[in-house]
Amino acid sequence: MYSCQVTKTANRSAEPEGDKPRLSKRTVTENALKLADADGLDALTIRKLAQHLGVTPMALYWHFRSKEDLLEGVAEQVWGELDTNVDAKAPWWAQLQRLLESLVSTLRAHPAAPQLLLEHEKRNEAALRATELTLDILRTAGFDPQYASTIARSALWTGITLVMSEPGFKPELAADERAEWQRRSQVQLSMLPAARYPRLVECAVPMSACDDPDFHYRFGIELFIDGVRAAAARLGSSGS
C-alpha cells in the first residue's frame, strides 16, 4: 500500500533519571494507540499518555520529541500490524486482495487508524515493506510503474474509505450515542417526501446503519479487485 515521508527520532545521549518504569518505544506507541482508539486521536496528548503509563512527560520525550513525532510512531505501529505474508503461488489479484483484506482488518481493529494514516502517512519501515510488496505484485502482473503506483495508492485509499464510509461509522461516539445517531438518521431519511425521494426512503435503514458489516467490507474489496482485474485485461497485463 502506498505511503509517503519519514521523520526519525534524534538520538539521545542520556536518559532522564527517575522515570520508572523504563519504557520501550514499542510500549509507548502501543499504549498511545490504545488511548487514541478509546478517546479519539485528537484527545491524545503527551501528558495524558504519560499519566496513563505512570511516568513523567519527560520519559516520553526520551523517545519522541513531540506529539507529531509520537503520532508518526503510532502510524508505524499500525502499519506493522499488517499481515504481508501472501502466497506467492496464488494469482496476483488474490495476493493483492489478501493485502487489502489485511489493511481493512487492521483499520477496523483500531478506530483511530483511518484518521491516523490520513494525517500521518510517513515512509516508516513497515509502510515501506507493505508498499514494496504491493508494487512487486502489480509489476509482476504486468502493470507498468505508473499503473502499479496508481493502483497501490488507490488500494490504501480504498481501505481507509471503506472503514470511514461504513454506515453509522462514528468512532468518537459511545455505543449508545452512536445507536441514537443512527436512529435519528434513519428517521430523517424515512420522513423524506416519498414522491420525490422514493429510493432514499426505501433504503433508509441500510443508508443509516451497517447491520451486516462483513458484507460492506467484502463487497467493497471485491469491487476494487474486480476493477483492477478489468484494467489488467484491458491493458493486456499477464495475470487476468
Could you walk me through the main structural features you see in this protein, from its secondary elements to its overall organization?
Helix 4 packs across helix 7, helix 5 packs parallel to helix 8 and helix 6 packs across helix 8. The longest helix has 23 residues. About 30% of the residues are buried. This protein has a domain of about 35 residues. The N terminus is likely disordered. The chain has 12 helices and no strands. With about 240 residues, the protein is an all-alpha fold.
Summarize the structure.
With 240 residues, the chain is mostly helical. It is 63% helix and 0% strand.
Terminal CA distance reads: 20 Å
Q: What does the average pLDDT come to?
A: 86
Q: Which sequence of SSEs, written as H and E, runs from N to C?
A: HHHHHHHHHHHH
Number of strands: 0
**What is the multimeric organization of the chains shown?**
single chain
Radius of gyration in whole Å, from Cα?
21 Å
The portion of residues assigned to helices is 55-70%
Largest sheet descriptor: none
Give the overall silhouette. flat
* Class per helix and strand makeup: mainly alpha
List the helices and strands and how they pair.
Blueprint: H1 25-39, H2 46-53, H3 57-61, H4 67-80, H5 92-109, H6 113-119, H7 125-140, H8 145-164, H9 175-190, H10 198-202, H11 204-208, H12 213-235
Helix pairs in contact: 1-4, 4-7, 5-7, 5-8, 5-12, 6-8, 7-8, 8-12
